[in-house]
Design brief:
Low-confidence stretches: 1-9, 35-41
Shape: elongated
Mean pLDDT: 74
Number of helices: 10
Structural class: alpha/beta
Helix content: 40-55%
Number of strands: 6
Distance between the termini: 77 Å
Radius of gyration: 36 Å
């Protein structure tokens, strides 16, 4: 002992890496390095290498091994993230996210379900849509048009890629009740409704409110989900909110 400091057996030069961790551990446990050093002489070895010291030594060997494994795992995850980022960039051909989104939308227009919103029944619709002054009656053959309306007697059982499904752009369902059905009949068009009654049940609510009239984005969600999954329960779950008063049967069990 000199100047009030304790000689702990660690080198005077600042240790690095695992040596620093081991040295600090021995300080905290108050174990002299010579007591756990493989090269310690036989003199006093039996006293120093007691069972308590050996138990502490094995414990810290496990701690050091765990830290080493953790660092190795972190390095492997870092390499995997870098490789994944490079792979995504190569798949996208170095395109910006906006360009990739536009490309996916163009692909969806050619391979997804064909939907058309009838803006003739309302004058307040979002401008974030492909719009045209032309009527769908002039754009598509009449026998290919199916007008979707909740008041139709026909149930939509499947999506035909050769059909064009018209969605009425309504603003207020209470004012324009059955307007879409009347409009489709005047134009001698086929009509259909989503199979809400066939796959869902009425949920008990305080207002006793149940409505099959959905917003345009909800119908989009239902049709696109069904087109991908071919499952009406999954599609209706994705698009029909609980506020409409309908739920899947398993939800009330």
């Amino acid at each position: 002992m000199a100047g009030g400091s304790v000689d702990d057996g660690c080198p005077s030069v600042e240790p690095e890496g695992e040596a620093a961790v081991a040295c600090e551990a021995l300080r905290l446990l108050r174990i002299e390095p010579s007591a756990v050093s493989p090269g310690a002489g036989p003199a006093g070895g039996a006293a120093r290498c007691s069972r308590n010291v050996l138990r502490k030594r094995r414990r810290w060997e496990r701690v050091l091994a765990a830290k080493k494994r953790k660092r190795q795992q972190e390095r492997e995850r870092s390499r995997a993230r870098r490789a994944g980022g490079a792979g995504a960039a190569s798949r996208g051909g170095g395109k910006a996210p906006a360009a990739l989104a536009k490309e996916r939308l163009l692909q969806a227009r050619t391979s997804g379900p064909r939907l058309c919103v009838d803006l003739g029944v309302a004058d307040r619709m979002t401008e974030k849509m492909d719009t045209t002054q032309e009527s769908y009656l002039d754009l598509f053959p009449l026998d290919a048009i199916v007008y979707l309306t909740p008041d139709s007697e026909n149930v939509l059982e499947d999506i035909d890629p050769n059909k064009v499904y018209i969605l009425g752009g309504l603003v207020d369902e209470s004012i324009h009740k059955k307007l879409t059905l009347q409009r489709a009949r005047e134009q001698s068009l086929q009509t259909a409704r989503l199979p809400i009654r066939e796959y869902m049940v009425k949920a008990v609510n305080t207002k006793n409110y149940h409505s099959e009239t959905l917003a345009i984005n909800q119908v989009f969600d239902i049709l696109s989900t069904y087109y991908e999954t071919r499952s009406w329960p999954a599609a209706l779950k994705a698009g029909v909110s609980s506020g409409k008063g309908y739920v899947l049967p398993e939800a009330v069990k």
